[in-house]
Amino acid sequence: MNNNFQRDIDLGLSAQNKTLPSKYFYDEIGDALFVEIMKMPEYYLTKAEFDIFKNKSQELIKVLKLNPSTFFELVELGAGDGTKTKQLLKALDDQNYNFEYMPIDISKNALKHLKASVNAELPTVRITPKQGDYFNVLADLKQSEHPIVVLFLGSNIGNLPDERAKEFIQKLSDNLKVGDRVLLGVDLIKSESIVLPAYNDAQGITKRFNLNLLTRINKELDANFDLNSFTHQPEYIEQEGIARSFLVSTKDQTVAIRSLNKTFTFAKNEKIQTETSRKYNDYIMKGILGESSLKIIDRLTDSQNLFADYILEN
Ligand code: AVJ
After folding, report:
1. Treating both helix axes as pointing N-terminal to C-terminal, what angle do 83-94 and 108-121 enclose, rounded to 10 degrees?
2. What is the number of the ligand 1 atom nearest to the C-alpha of 209?
3. Which residues pair with 184 in a beta bridge?
4. Could you tell me where the beta strands, DSSP code E, fall in 7-79?
5. How much is the ipTM here?
6. How far apart are CA 214 and CA 209, in angstroms?
7. Are 199 and 283 in contact (CB under 8 A)?
8. CA of 98 to the centre of ligand 1 (A)
9. Whose CA is nearest to atom 10 of ligand 1?
10. Cα 135 to Cα 104, 168, 275, 304, distances in angstroms
11. Could you give phi then psi for residue 237, rounded to 5 degrees?
């Protein structure tokens, strides 16, 4: 991980338009800040998808065409804290659906916490966490006869540029059988007045989340980024439906990254892009489904139409 980290940081900061990969937000501090982000009043995404899971669980079960008597694997890509998923698990469990819940994550720790909370709150739900790569686990499951329902929530796919999202979908489709389903949660394209505050909260939590990338580079790669010389700057272009986060250098400066034996110069107002958060509509969704076998069979939205859970069938 650290070698990849080192290589990715070097590549990103050496480019003409500097970038840092958003996947590196999530160290222990970043995980905790993301939990705070999900609770912020401005961050509507989590609340909107929770609304779907809480108030439309019956509709979700219906559009997923689940059969109470046929065993299925409910696979979740990424463990999270399970707040949304538990609503669906409870509805399925109450109606005696025959299933196993299989969260997949690279973090053993996240899986351990999720298992403990599911066991405590829903003791009759079968949970089998799998630590590892999403696609390796799915490839193994493809050998079994059981129908698979994949959950990929929270607009996590939005961090991928469209070409990468398309590749992700193709790979997902290749690792599923005909008829398997995917519940794909995405943020919807909407006005700047709603999207931008979600990435620029009044308390400055997102700013800390963004700047934590530099703290991480300082700690792990022995660098000397001055956190007071970079500001957090989110942008959103409604026409494209893409929010981007940047760190902007407030002065001409040079930063040394000792483990790379290199220095990097930043001009005043130079931007480092740290995140892409793509928003969707049916047209963009069809685009990323591309030539894969996954087809849209339905879509459920929250009461305010902010967020959508697409139901896809392979
Ligand atoms: C977890 C990728 C969905 O893009 O909205 C939140 C991450 N970044 N605030 C998003 C995030 C800044 C989030 N996703």
Report:
1. 40
2. 12
3. 152, 310
4. 72-77
5. 0.99
6. 10
7. no
8. 33
9. 277
10. 10, 10, 23, 34
11. -115, 105
pLDDT at 2: 62
Decide whether any atom of ligand 1 lies within 6 Å of the 199 Cβ.
yes
Residue 48: CB within 6 Å of ligand 1? no
Q: Is 201 in the pocket of ligand 1 (CB under 6 A)?
A: no
Closest to 314 measured CA to CA, from 279, 284, 289? 289
Cα(304) to centroid(ligand 1), Å: 19
Whose Cα sits closest to atom 13 in ligand 1?
A: 156
Rounded Cα distance, 76 and 87, in Å? 14
Regarding the beta carbon of 273 and ligand 1, being less than 6 Å apart is answered no
Q: Which has the closest alpha carbon to 21: 30, 31, 11?
A: 11
| Ligand 1 in reach of 276 Cβ (< 6 A) | no
In whole angstroms, give the CA distance from residue 249 to residue 23.
21
Element (H, E) at 163: helix 162-174
pLDDT reported for residue 80: 84
CA of 136 to the centre of ligand 1 (A): 25
Per-residue pLDDT of the chain in tens (314 residues, 90 and over written 9): 568 999 999 999 999 999 999 999 999 999 999 999 999 999 999 999 999 999 999 999 999 999 999 999 999 999 888 999 999 999 999 999 999 999 999 889 999 999 999 999 999 999 999 999 999 999 999 999 999 999 999 999 999 999 999 999 999 999 999 999 999 999 999 999 999 999 999 999 999 999 999 999 999 999 999 999 999 999 999 999 999 999 999 999 999 999 999 999 999 999 999 999 999 999 999 999 999 999 999 999 999 999 999 999 99
Q: Which among 38, 40, 155 is the best mutation to test ligand 1's pocket, defined by most ligand atoms within 8 Å of the CB?
A: 155
Write the CA distances from 141 to 20, 30, 105, 247, 295, integer angstroms: 34, 31, 15, 41, 21
